[in-house]
Recover the amino acids of this structure.
């Protein structure tokens, strides 16, 4: 089939069918019909071989020209439909960025979490590490390892929450101090760690007590550490949190796992002691006492180090622990600890970004 008019008709039919295709799918169907293996033009092309030798050249040229015209028409329509489809897609998928959106309030950190971050940052900046331990703790870690005698009053059920069955000697940790022993048993010396964590006691749930509360524990064990390094570290923490003119004092105290032991007090950063004996200037932050009890601390008792297999002739250390809920309370003026547990966002929102 090399007849010129016949070929012209094939080209015209193919062009018309491409032109009427209005989608890429339709064009693909038209392509199969007019360019595919069984299309008239393909058959004509294969038929060249069967022609008498002298007719082949001319037929080949005519059929080649017709195939070229059909391919060109196909390519042209393909390009045109691509543009049309892209435009349709852009319209269908367009987003009106000017439409109003419903603004949901952003989540935020609980004030205790926020303060943990702030306190830990002070230590991380000095090269200390963060350590953690389980809240369901072995009674041994919580008490024996820290040199509490078997009859120490805080072990009793009235203070400590025991997990069933009691013969397993598992408790909810009453302080973050068991992480001291866990750290000494697992990390290489020297050790400089802070431990933010939840702690549990069989306490009433009222304005000044929570059965679940939070502590920040610190432990440093190295060569030549003592009371001076403890005092310097806590001073630095206090100044970072309450302002550079903050004063601290260490008051002698007793803890089984430190010797000597002390409590650290902050000079009231609100009234600077002016409320003491001066009812006209009563201070809620320090209850007009001039000092605020902040936490416990001391030089690590060598018995604790020895229990962890540490040579106490070479190494010594200091430790401290403070209540974080209480710290938010006096630092930010919260008055009822139950607000910390009840999850009302209005409470958290009040304390976000409160200036010192
Ligand atoms: N664990 C003590 C408590 O909950 C606080 C404490 C006192 C922690 C002295 C220490 C420390 O690391 O050295 O009351």
């Amino acid at each position: 089939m090399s007849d010129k008019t016949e070929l012209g008709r094939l080209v015209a039919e193919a062009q018309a069918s491409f032109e009427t295709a209005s989608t890429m799918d339709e064009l693909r169907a038209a392509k199969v019909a007019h360019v595919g293996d069984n299309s008239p033009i393909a058959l004509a092309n294969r038929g060249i071989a069967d022609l008498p030798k002298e007719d082949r050249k001319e037929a080949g040229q005519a059929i080649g020209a017709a195939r070229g015209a059909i391919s060109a028409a196909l390519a042209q329509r393909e390009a045109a439909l691509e543009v049309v489809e892209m435009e349709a897609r852009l319209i269908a998928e367009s987003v009106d960025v000017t439409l109003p959106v419903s603004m949901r309030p952003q989540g935020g950190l609980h004030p205790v979490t926020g303060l943990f971050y702030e306190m830990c940052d002070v230590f991380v900046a000095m090269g200390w590490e963060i350590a953690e331990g389980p809240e369901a703790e072995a009674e041994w870690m919580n008490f024996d390892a820290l040199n509490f005698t078997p009859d120490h009053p805080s072990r009793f059920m009235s203070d400590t929450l025991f997990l069933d069955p009691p013969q397993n000697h598992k408790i909810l940790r009453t302080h973050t101090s068991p992480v001291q022993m866990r750290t000494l048993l697992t990390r290489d010396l020297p050790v400089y760690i802070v431990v933010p964590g939840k702690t549990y006691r069989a306490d009433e749930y009222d304005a000044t007590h929570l059965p679940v509360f939070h502590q920040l524990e610190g432990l440093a064990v190295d060569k030549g550490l003592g009371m001076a390094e403890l005092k310097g570290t806590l001073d630095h923490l206090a100044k970072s949190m309450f302002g550079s003119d903050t004063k601290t004092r260490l008051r002698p105290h007793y803890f089984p796992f430190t010797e000597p032991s002390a409590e650290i007090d902050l000079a009231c950063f609100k009234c600077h002691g002016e409320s003491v004996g001066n009812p006209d200037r009563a201070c809620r932050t320090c209850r007009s006492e001039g000092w605020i009890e902040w936490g416990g601390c001391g030089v690590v008792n060598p018995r604790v180090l020895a229990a962890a297999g540490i040579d106490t002739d070479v190494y010594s250390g200091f430790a401290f622990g403070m209540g974080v809920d209480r710290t938010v309370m006096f630092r930010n003026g919260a008055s009822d600890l139950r607000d910390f547990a009840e999850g009302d966002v209005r409470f958290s929102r009040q304390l976000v970004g409160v200036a010192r």
Notes: The first helix runs from residue 4 to 20. The chain is about 40% helix and 20% strand. The two ends are 96 Å apart (CA to CA). Residues 175, 177, 217, 255, 258, 296-298, 319-321 surround 3,4-dihydroxyphenylalanine (CB under 6 Å).
